[in-house]
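Record copied across here:
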Amino acid sequence: MSTETQTAAAPHAERAHRGTIFVEDGEVLEVREYPGDQYIVRVRSPKCAAHARPGSFAHVTCDESLPMRRPLSIMRADAAEGWIEFLYKIVGEGLRLLSRHRPGDRVSVLGPIGQPFRPDPARPRTLLVGGGVGIPPMVFLAEALKADRSVDWQPLVLMGSEIPFPFELLRATDELPGIAADVCSVMPLLESLGVPSRLASGAGFEGCYRGFVTELAGEWLARLDEAELAGVGMFACGPTPMLAAAAGVARRFAIPCQVSLEEYMACAVGGCAGCAVEVRTPEGPAMKRVCVDGPVFDAASVFPPRPA
């Protein structure tokens, strides 16, 4: 893209997001620490909570000494009580400083940012696949689907991690057709919502599938017949290799898949284009900004099949 085109596009991009992204002086309400340098932090941020959608994220200050914010996926949002929750793993000094915050501390929240997941009512059987720090958007999406009574959504959440999960493992109360009975560990929050879940790990955690979460997804899909597959929509978030594998699974079973990308960001509001990735469009390859054009994209547009 030429500099002239970029300059002309910038004002349009700003107008498109005007009134949808807010800057708030957030108050830390709760911090929970988990093994593997993982943290869940709840922040009072009423405007962000009211407008957040599954797949969106916020750009958060970690410490007054660091000018750069960090992008964090929103795991839960309560519009009525005005709070949002993030799950993150310490990677770098910024998130280490953020982990030292305690209830009552203040953090600046810029959000919500990004395009959300777009479930299709024609495919109510939703398969949600999260890996590592890609788990939060799947929790948000599952909770939102469960709360939406306009469609008979049937979410199944599969989560993978090679470090301890950031919650106590709970044994499923019911077996899940298409998944072995010994794969029985679930996330307590989802269980309380009535959303079935299963966990995968190569680390040998009790009740978890021994392998990649995308392999578990493939085994579950393989048990469905053609008519059942016609009602399935897949959603994924996690490291890039996992998303590429998820796109491959979706392609193998001919089901649509949306992926939420993870990318380094500077401004996170579309101005710097530092998070741009190549995406296939009907007009040909194009560079799209993960922050505001995404982070959710059609999996086939980001991970097309490799030439034979």
Observations:
- The CA atoms of residues 147 and 253 lie 28 Å apart.
- The two ends are 30 Å apart (CA to CA).
- The chain has two domains: 17-113, 125-302.
- Residues 1-14 have pLDDT under 50 and may be disordered.
